[in-house]
């Protein structure tokens, strides 16, 4: 059976929600500069859209963490494949992630980043699957809470495909 994508969150809904998040984040960081850290690769589409909606000064950095596992589940063993370019010491850090699933990746990442003495760390995720949580991760900003389904689009992939979809959908027809 061929793979098809069922729309879960439309392009308009995603864009509206990101505008609202940007406004909220700008208000909460009034008078400060936000050092946004994008978790590659999935977080990149979200970070670009979100950064454009934030009205306080921002700087950007990127980190790539991969968790060993198969295509759809994370093993909990996390590896830093690309570290940040700049120090985060004394900075107000906002981690930008595509999705929090088991929470293992972010649990590990927050622990690593806290040791580098940022002034503050907050977490913003486009999607949250709270039902799947295995590690307690404090999420400060959530785009959408979604049910336990495997989703793609807006940065999220299935075997590296579909990241460029401008909406969020569920893959159907996968064995
Ligand atoms: P966690 O460590 O289980 O929270 O896994 C987070 C990572 O797993 C995300 O950053 C995604 O890369 C991937 N992931 C989890 N759920 C999905 C999904 O529904 N679609 C695509 N990737 C997912
Ligand atoms: Mg990710």
From TrEMBL:
The keyword Nucleus does not apply. It holds the Pfam family Pribosyltran. GO terms for biological process: GMP salvage; guanine salvage; hypoxanthine metabolic process; IMP salvage; purine ribonucleoside salvage. It is an enzyme of class 2 (transferase). InterPro entries: HGPRT (IPR050408), Hxn_phspho_trans (IPR005904), PRTase-like (IPR029057), PRTase_dom (IPR000836). GO terms for cellular component: cytosol. The keyword Protein transport does not apply. It comes from Mediterraneibacter gnavus (strain CC55_001C). NCBIfam families: HGPRTase. The lineage of its organism: Bacteria, Bacillati, Bacillota, Clostridia, Lachnospirales. Its EC number is 2.4.2.8. Purine salvage pathway enzyme that catalyzes the transfer of the ribosyl-5-phosphate group from 5-phospho-alpha-D-ribose 1-diphosphate (PRPP) to the N9 position of the 6-oxopurines hypoxanthine and guanine to form the corresponding ribonucleotides IMP (inosine 5'-monophosphate) and GMP (guanosine 5'-monophosphate), with the release of PPi. Pathway: Purine metabolism; GMP biosynthesis via salvage pathway; GMP from guanine: step 1/1; Purine metabolism; IMP biosynthesis via salvage pathway; IMP from hypoxanthine: step 1/1. This is Hypoxanthine phosphoribosyltransferase. One of its GO terms (molecular function) is nucleotide binding. Belongs to the purine/pyrimidine phosphoribosyltransferase family. It catalyses: GMP + diphosphate = guanine + 5-phospho-alpha-D-ribose 1-diphosphate; IMP + diphosphate = hypoxanthine + 5-phospho-alpha-D-ribose 1-diphosphate. Residues 14-158 form the Phosphoribosyltransferase domain.
């Amino acid at each position: 059976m061929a793979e098809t994508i069922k729309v879960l969150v439309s392009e308009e809904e995603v864009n509206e929600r990101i505008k609202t998040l940007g406004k909220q984040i700008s208000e909460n960081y009034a008078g400060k500069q936000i050092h946004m850290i994008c978790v590659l690769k999935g977080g990149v589409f979200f970070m670009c859209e979100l950064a454009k909606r934030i009205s306080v000064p921002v700087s950007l950095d990127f980190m790539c963490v991969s968790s060993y596992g198969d295509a759809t589940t994370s093993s909990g063993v996390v590896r830093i494949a690309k570290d940040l370019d700049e120090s985060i010491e004394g900075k107000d850090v906002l981690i930008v992630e595509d999705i929090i699933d088991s929470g293992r990746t972010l649990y590990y990442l927050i622990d690593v980043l806290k040791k580098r003495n940022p002034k503050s760390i907050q977490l913003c995720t486009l999607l949250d699957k709270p039902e799947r949580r295995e590690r307690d991760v404090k999420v400060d900003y959530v785009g959408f809470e979604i049910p336990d389904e495997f989703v793609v689009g807006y940065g999220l992939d299935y075997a590296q495909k579909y990241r460029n979809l401008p909406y969020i959908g569920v893959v159907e027809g996968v064995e």
